[in-house]
Amino acid sequence: MFSINSATMHDLAQQDVGFEVMVTYIILARGVSIRSLRRVSSYSAQHIVSKIRIEQAKVDTALRWLAKQNIIEMQESPDTQDKGGKWVLLDGSQDIYLPVLLTDNKRQPPPIMRLYGTPAAENQEPEFPIDDLVVLLTLYMYQDMDKCGGVDPRSGLFRQWTTVAGSKH
């Protein structure tokens, strides 16, 4: 499980920044250890490219845009120079908990990429319905993934049976 900030996702959707920016942010958040006090992602730009299988230039543009908006910042250190650096997420409290499987799949594109449409024409960009991603994230926000793994025993449907006086069962 990993977490993202709902206000950040809402702002990204409102600004209509596009698929690459939103998913780049989600993948960066996936690279953050849940035990980390400072939200440093272990994922570099190259890792994002390999994970979501979009062009390096689009991921670099998305990272620059997120940094310009003060959502992330580059953490330079000698041990990360050759790997492209690490990114620190600056967007505050995390309130949407997502399953790791949303972004991870070794054999084919991860499930989050299945929202990404196919191009209508050969030289056309695929269409990405931002609303679909927003609905998905909103559902996860209300599922209490951090407390109950998505199944809240306090609000489930059940039937309570009562005993009848004098019955044998």
Keywords:
single chain, 169 residues, two-stranded antiparallel ribbon, 6 helices, 5 strands
Could you characterize the architecture of this molecule?
It is a single chain. This protein is of the alpha+beta class. 34% of the residues lie in helices and 9% in strands. The chain contains 6 helices and 5 strands. It has helices spanning 6-14, 19-30, 45-52, 56-68, 130-141, 145-148; strands spanning 2-4, 40-41, 72-75, 86-89, 96-98. The strands form 2 sheets. The chain has a 3-stranded antiparallel β-sheet. Strands 1-5 form a two-stranded antiparallel ribbon. The longest helix is centred in the middle third of the chain and has 13 residues, at 56-68. The chain is elongated. The termini are far apart.
Give the overall average pLDDT.
78
Counted beta strands? 5
Q: What general form does the structure show?
A: elongated
H and E string: EHHEHHEEEHH
The total of helices stands at 6
Q: Which residue ranges are poorly predicted, with pLDDT under 50 across at least 5 consecutive positions?
A: none
Taking the alpha carbons of the first and last residues, their distance comes to 44 Å
Spatial order of the strands forming the largest sheet: 2-4-3
Kindly state the percentage of residues in helix. 25-40%
Helix and strand composition category: alpha+beta
Describe the main β-sheet briefly: 3 strands, antiparallel
